[in-house]
Design goal:
seven-stranded antiparallel beta sheet; 0% helix; 9 strands; Thrombin, subunit H; mainly beta
Length: 126
């Protein structure tokens, strides 16, 4: 069954993280005030220094999914690791390289926020 989702924020830079898996407190470089508890976070882990994520190429090493479990203030959230597409397991959202920078000094991958609006329903009219 298809789900309706909206993008709340398309690319938010990460400043810092604390905590240990599966729950992390993440401080962002800008406001995430429109995020709600229950929203989803997608982070594309790239090879450090290997270039940024390009959706049309599906060039990520792994796509990580976290869920927002708490809101501290307008730029700090608590997120919980849910899964990743490569089966690598729990990893801090601050430890996922964006592909920019160098292998010795990688940049943190930006976070994409989605809201699940529920199941899609088709209406049939006679």
């Amino acid at each position: 069954m298809a789900r309706n989702t909206i993008t709340v924020y398309a690319s938010v830079a990460v400043s810092s993280c604390s905590g240990s898996g599966p729950t992390y407190t993440v401080n962002y470089g800008s406001s995430v005030a429109n995020v709600q508890v229950g929203d989803w976070v997608t982070v594309y882990k790239m090879e450090a220094g290997g270039g940024e994520h390009e959706p049309d190429l599906a060039n990520e090493e792994s796509a990580y999914t976290y869920q927002v479990t708490g809101i501290t203030d307008s730029d700090t959230l608590t997120v919980k690791y849910i899964t990743d597409s490569n089966g690598d397991g729990d990893d801090s959202p601050c430890d996922l390289p964006s592909g920019s920078g160098s292998s010795g000094s990688p940049n943190k991958a930006p976070h994409i926020f989605y809201r699940d609006l529920g199941a899609s329903f088709l209406m049939f009219v006679d």
